[in-house]
Amino acid sequence: MIWKVNICLCITFACWLRYLGVGGVGSVTAEMLTRCGIGKLLLFDYDKVELANMNRLFFQPHQAGLSKVEAAEHTLRNINPDVSFETHNYNITTMENFTHFMDRISHGGLEEGKPVDLVLSCVDNFEARMAINQACNELGQIWMESGVSENAVSGHIQLIIPGETACFACAPPLVVAANIDEKTLKREGVCAASLPTTMGVVAGILVQNVLKYLLKFGTVSYYLGYNAMQDFFPTMAMKPNPQCNDRHCRRQQEEYKKKEAERPTVEVVQEEEDVVHEDNEWGIELVSEVTDAELQAASGPVPDLPEGITVAFTIPSEVTDGDTVEETEQSLEELMAQMKKL
Ligand SMILES: *[C@@H]1O[C@H](CO)[C@@H](O)[C@H](O)[C@H]1NC(C)=O
Ligand SMILES: *[C@@H]1O[C@H](CO)[C@@H](O)[C@H](O)[C@H]1NC(C)=O
Ligand SMILES: [Zn+2]
């Protein structure tokens, strides 16, 4: 074993709501971390393996009908018996399960009683994301969020440090802010697209960020998007919203400010600068390498969207002007059919 770190990983592939068809991200993430020799993985999911999901990676047809956590643990144990696993086959958003979930985050560490090192969210719906967000804000637990869009051609990962960077509720998607029941957004009879490629890329950049964060190398990304159509990878960093709806987020922000104020100010002259964290224990900076002007230039026009749907990011005009394929009105199904004909 090269290194031993304790991770609490949430996997969800729920089909009941494919608003964000993340599906394959969590299982692939767990496999990569298992092969890397992570110390302990805690897996949470309430779904069963389905034959209909076989276009995704990891699970196999003979596992159909098994709970995802049970099937995953079996496969992962075979790959690396040195890793310890703890699985929970339940819906983390129900009240009693949520309490148990929080207890496992704060006590399920490699050494029982200690908190986990990192929580990874690979869920496919806002309700579960909000639950993870709430738990982590309350506990001050650092976590990483991941997502794949419904049309399967974009995704993102995000590092959330309660009080220090924006939480999921600080800048909520419209569906959460407007209190829309996300189930009503699911179009009748439409099963969202799902591509193992996009999921593999998102799982890859998620685990890369996890390794960089835990093993302290390179620059850890606060937000990294992936747009498959243009091969565009936007990055940014977001400060928390002082008016965040989550009171624990606001409390964490206050505590963070206090902690920052108490820190001996070594370079008083540099206080004006935004970079305050160069010597934190992770060696990461709060500010992304892009300037505000560059960020502005890196976003394009916001398209007209139906109520309840927001864009994760927009395409800058330089990118679309460049040597790229023409925008097409074709759906993913049509594109796939075309690909088969080639
Ligand atoms: C999980 O629990 C929440 C809260 O009770 C509920 O709204 C949601 O529908 C549940 N999900 C499933 C798949 O049962
Ligand atoms: C999870 O919730 C279900 C139903 O709400 C309950 O039967 C079960 O005991 C809970 N599990 C834990 C570990 O809290
Ligand atoms: Zn917040």
UniProtKB/TrEMBL annotation:
Q: Where is the signal peptide?
A: 1-30
Sorted keywords for this record are: ATP-binding, Metal-binding, Nucleotide-binding, Signal, Ubl conjugation pathway, Zinc
**Do you know which SUPFAM superfamilies this protein is assigned to?**
Activating enzymes of the ubiquitin-like proteins
PROSITE patterns, sorted? PROKAR_LIPOPROTEIN (PS51257)
Gene Ontology cellular-component annotations? cytosol
Keyword Nucleus assigned: no
Pfam families referenced in this protein's UniProt entry, alphabetically: ThiF
| GO terms of biological process kind | protein ufmylation
Query: Which InterPro entries does the entry mention?
Result: ThiF/MoeB/HesA, ThiF_NAD_FAD-bd, Ubiquitin-activating_enz
* Annotated TM spans: none
Q: Which GO terms describe its molecular function?
A: ATP binding; metal ion binding; UFM1 activating enzyme activity
Where the record annotates domain THIF-type NAD/FAD binding fold, the positions are 20-245
Q: Which domain of life is it from?
A: Eukaryota
Which Gene3D superfamilies does its entry note? NAD(P)-binding Rossmann-like Domain (3.40.50.720)
UniProt-listed CDD domains: ThiF_MoeB_HesA_family (cd00757)
Indicate yes or no for the key word ATP-binding.
Answer: yes
Q: Which family does it belong to?
A: Belongs to the ubiquitin-activating E1 family. UBA5 subfamily.
What is this protein's name? Ubiquitin-like modifier-activating enzyme 5
Recorded source organism is Sphaeramia orbicularis (orbiculate cardinalfish)
